[in-house]
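Lab notebook, bench 4. Still working through the backlog of constructs that have no structural model yet. Next entry is a single chain of 272 residues. Request: give me the structure tokens for it.
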Amino acid sequence: MAVQAPFGRTLSVPRDGYTLHAEAIPPASDDARWLVFGNSLVTDLSIWAAQAAALAGRYGILRYDQAGHGQSGVPQAAVDFDDLGGDLLAVMDAAGLRRATYVGLSMGVPTGLAAHAQSADRFSALVLSDGQAKTAPGGAASWAERIDGARAAGMGAFAEETAGRWLTEGATAAQRAELTAMIAATPFEGFESCATALKGYDYAEELQRIACPVLLLAGAQDGAMPEGMVTKLKPAIAGAEMQVIDGAGHVPCFEQPAAFTAHLTRFLEGAA
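Model written out:
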């Protein structure tokens, strides 16, 4: 059964040619910190349902659908991560947040780094999961191939293949069905827009400018991702902590929500 997050206030945030959908759950205390969650490619804000359910009340929770995903509109022109980082700041503005901890998954990692590059003082801490600071060598060709494949086969077939690649053999049938449905519901044009942005981005230099606390998380079975984060991101960010989550692939917040939330909670308590 899918985890349901508490009901929050819905926000509609206008951007240049599209509108972003966001949901804000206020904390129990006015002086509590806020957490902002950014989803991966071909998922939506519900990928964070377990974390929102576990942390609501103690923290303010702001989740949003990145451009072209979930209930957000599809950009009518090409976007890059400077645009997507601007989206994150615009969502924070719409929710009235001057400063928050950002938690980003996969595509949400360069989104957060782009936003940090634009306005570092908006972030009290960063939690970066299963993502990179720059396009990997050969990544442009790989993304072009995936875009062409999804265009030819349709998002349903693409969803089956992607969910199978992202989850481990230990994932439940319910998890597989939920993630597959989430991916399949993403409009091709939304996937294409953000996947095109993933073909060529580079925020590696931004890592050295990060002065706030940083937690790096990766699924142990997410291919080369854990090693890449350990060898490339961690040494470049002063004081960064790295944790690897067993029994998880590319979406540990979804596949192993209890372990992910435990690491996140402990980090938040230490970053207070």
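Notes after review: The mean pLDDT is 96. Residues 139-153 form the longest helix (15 residues). Flag for follow-up if needed.
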